[in-house]
Write a structure and sequence with these properties.
single chain; 107 residues; alpha/beta; Rossmann fold
């Protein structure tokens, strides 16, 4: 029962976010419902975060903090676990290049 819980979906996978949106629509739950959040590691799949936020979803980015010797192994594990991001790397690089180009023309 959604009235007695909250959900945080931690994913960098675009298809997973789409499934969350579809499931919410099917259950007549607005994307902006305060009990539903999407969370991602800061700096990963930002285009997914921006689009999810633009559609009204509650989006959080988290940033690991601590001594480098403790944080780096964590980040390496996250990178290894996120094999779904591999297929999105080309798109991510393309979006970064577009943004760099856009900012050059703003000057």
């Amino acid at each position: 029962n959604i009235d007695h819980m909250a959900v945080v979906v931690g994913t960098h996978n675009q298809e997973s976010i789409s499934r969350v949106c579809y499931s919410l629509e099917q259950a007549n739950i607005p994307l902006s419902d305060d009990r539903i959040h999407v969370a991602q590691l800061f700096g990963m799949s930002d285009h997914i975060s921006f689009n999810a936020a633009a559609s009204g979803m509650n989006v959080a980015k988290y940033l690991p903090f601590g001594p480098v010797k403790d944080v780096l192994p964590y980040l390496f594990r996250r990178a290894e676990e996120n094999t779904s991001v591999e297929g999105q790397t080309g798109r991510e690089l393309s979006l970064i290049q577009q943004e760099i180009t856009r900012r050059k023309f703003l000057k």
